[in-house]
Amino acid sequence: METKSEFLSEAMVKLLNYRVEQEEYSSRIYLAMSTWLDDKGFVGASKLFKQYSDEEIVHANKARKILLANGLRPVTPALKQPKQDFLSLPDVIQSALAHEQEITRQCYALTKAAHDEGNFMVVELGLWYAKEQAEELSKVQYLLDRLEAFGEELSMLRRLDDEMGQLVS
């Protein structure tokens, strides 16, 4: 494998490998949330967060493929253990929002760095990530809006859990 690319600077390679790492870590965060939810009886929410976990691997593969297409082997990252315990379903949803906001900031930084370098291949990828992040933020905001509109009583959380299960595609 080459260690240099005609179209990717060392800075871009580092940012793309970081994107792989962060998307895979996102998958693990959502898997931990899914497992906690399942353990606490929130079966619908658990299925939805498992789906989110699976989607994050797809996101990681986008950056991985750009590296491979340029003759570079992506780094398979070591990942830290995500948080394992949560206070409640609303806590999981709030944690997901905070995480997606951080990922959005990271994706904007990737896109800006690529734009500043004039690397249109990575700009295009960054724009794809930005579009995905708009969707991710919207999904979590919808859940927060449901909590705000209907409250956090157990009967409402059960209904929200059922609704979240119906969102699984």
TrEMBL record:
- Name the InterPro entries for this protein: Ferritin-like (IPR012347), Ferritin-like_diiron (IPR009040), Ferritin-like_SF (IPR009078), Ferritin_DPS_dom (IPR008331), Ferritin_prok (IPR041719)
| SUPFAM superfamilies listed in its UniProt record | Ferritin-like
Listed GO MF terms = ferric iron binding
| Alphabetized Pfam families for the sequence | Ferritin
Start and end residues of each Ferritin-like diiron domain: 6-151
Source superkingdom: Bacteria
Q: What family does this belong to?
A: Belongs to the ferritin family. Prokaryotic subfamily.
Record protein name field? Ferritin
- Write down the species: Aureibaculum algae
